[in-house]
C-alpha cells in the first residue's frame, strides 16, 4: 500500500506544480490513478482478444466492465477521500531526500508511461486499424513522446524547488501563535495559515505561507504560544518555545532542523514523542 500512496503523492505534486493556480490536486491525482487502472484493465481485455484470436465484446454497460470499474472508483474514494491516511504519508514522503524522491519519482513516471504506451499499442493491434508500416511509425512516435515525458518529469522537481526557494526567501514575519496553524486554500492555491499577534505591533495578524509542503514538516514542532520568526532573505524559520528552539532551514536538496537532516531527525526519540503527541491532538 505504501507504494500505491507514493504514486498518489507524485501525481498530487505533479498537478500542484503544473496548475496555476493549483487547485483540486487531490481530485486530479485520483482521476489520474483511475485512468491508468482503466487503461491497464483495457490492455488486459485487448491482449486476451489478440492471443485468443476472438474479439472480447466489452461494453461500458456490461457487468464484465462495470464491476472492475466500480471497484477501481470505490477504492480511490475510500483510500483518498474517506480515509485521510494519505496526508500522513505525504508528510513522510516530503521528508525524503531530493535524490531519493527523484529516483522513486522516475520509476513512477516510467511505469505510468509504460501503462499508457501499452494501452495504445494493444488497442492498435486489436482493432487492426492501420497497416503495419503505419502502425510501426505510430508506435515509434508514442515511444518518443513517452520518453520525452519521462525526461520532462525529471525536471519538474527542479522547477518546484526554484519556485519554493523564491517564495521562502521573500517571507518576513514575527508572530506569537494563538491557534494551531492549519492548511487551507483560496483561489485554488494551497497555503498554511498562521494566526496570532505580531511580535512588534502586538496586533492580531494572519499570515499565509505558500511553501506548504515544507511547512507541513513544522506540524510536529510548533504549538499555541510559540513565537515564529522568519526574516526576509533568509531560508531559516525559527520556532521559539518556552524551553527550546527549532531552526528549520529550507533547502530543497538538504532540508535541516537544528542542523540535522530530516532523516536524522525522524529517527530521534524526541521526534517520535512529538509525533505521538501530534496524532493524539489531531485524531
Structural notes for this entry:
The protein contains ten helices and nine strands. By secondary structure, the protein is of the alpha+beta class. It has two domains: 2-154, no CATH class; 169-282, no CATH class. Strands 1, 2, 3, 4, 5, 6, 7, 8 and 9 form a nine-stranded antiparallel β-sheet that branches. It starts with a helix and ends with a helix. The model is unreliable at 129-136 (pLDDT under 50).
Brief summary:
The protein has 283 residues and is an alpha+beta fold.
Number of domains: 2
H/E series: HHHHHHHEEEEHEEEEEHH
Structural Rg: 23 Å
Low-confidence stretches: 129-136
Helix content percent band: 55-70%
Cα-to-Cα separation, first versus last residue: 22 Å
Largest sheet: 9 strands, antiparallel
Defining key terms:
283 residues, alpha+beta, 2 domains, nine-stranded antiparallel β-sheet, 9 strands, elongated
List the helices and strands and how they pair.
Blueprint: H1 2-18, H2 25-52, H3 63-82, H4 85-94, H5 98-127, H6 132-154, H7 156-170, E1 173-177, E2 182-186, E3 189-198, E4 204-209, H8 212-215, E5 227-230, E6 236-240, E7 245-249, E8 256-257, E9 260-261, H9 262-266, H10 269-282
Antiparallel strand pairs: 1-3, 1-5, 2-3, 3-4, 5-6, 6-7, 7-8, 8-9
Helix pairs in contact: 1-2, 1-4, 2-3, 2-5, 5-6
Amino acid at each position: 500500500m505504501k507504494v500505491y500512496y507514493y504514486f498518489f503523492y507524485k501525481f498530487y505534486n505533479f498537478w500542484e506544480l503544473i496548475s496555476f493556480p493549483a487547485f483540486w490536486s487531490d481530485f486530479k491525482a485520483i482521476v489520474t490513478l483511475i485512468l491508468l487502472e482503466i487503461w491497464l484493465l483495457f490492455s488486459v481485455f485487448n491482449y486476451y482478444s489478440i492471443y485468443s484470436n476472438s474479439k472480447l465484446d466489452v461494453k461500458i454497460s456490461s457487468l464484465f466492465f462495470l464491476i472492475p470499474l466500480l471497484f477501481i472508483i470505490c477504492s480511490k474514494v475510500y483510500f483518498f477521500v474517506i480515509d485521510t491516511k494519505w496526508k500522513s504519508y505525504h508528510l513522510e514522503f516530503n521528508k525524503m531526500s531530493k535524490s531519493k524522491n527523484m529516483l522513486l519519482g522516475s520509476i513512477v513516471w516510467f511505469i505510468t508511461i509504460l501503462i499508457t504506451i501499452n494501452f495504445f499499442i494493444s488497442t492498435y493491434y486489436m482493432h487492426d486499424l492501420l497497416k503495419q508500416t503505419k502502425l510501426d511509425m505510430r508506435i515509434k512516435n508514442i515511444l518518443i513522446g513517452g520518453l520525452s515525458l519521462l525526461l520532462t518529469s525529471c525536471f519538474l522537481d527542479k522547477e518546484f524547488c526554484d519556485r519554493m526557494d523564491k517564495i521562502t526567501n521573500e517571507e518576513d514575519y514575527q508572530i506569537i501563535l494563538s491557534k494551531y496553524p492549519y492548511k487551507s486554500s483560496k483561489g485554488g492555491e494551497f497555503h498554511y495559515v498562521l494566526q496570532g499577534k505580531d511580535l512588534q505591533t502586538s496586533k492580531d495578524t494572519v499570515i499565509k505561507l505558500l511553501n506548504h509542503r515544507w511547512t507541513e514538516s513544522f506540524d510536529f514542532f510548533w504549538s499555541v504560544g510559540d513565537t515564529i520568526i522568519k526574516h526576509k532573505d533568509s531560508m531559516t524559520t525559527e520556532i521559539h518555545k518556552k524551553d527550546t528552539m527549532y531552526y528549520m532551514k529550507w533547502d530543497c536538496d538538504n532540508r535541516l532542523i537544528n542542523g540535522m537532516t530530516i532523516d536524522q531527525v525522524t529517527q530521534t526519540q524526541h521526534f517520535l514523542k512529538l509525533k505521538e503527541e501530534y496524532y493524539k491532538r489531531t485524531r
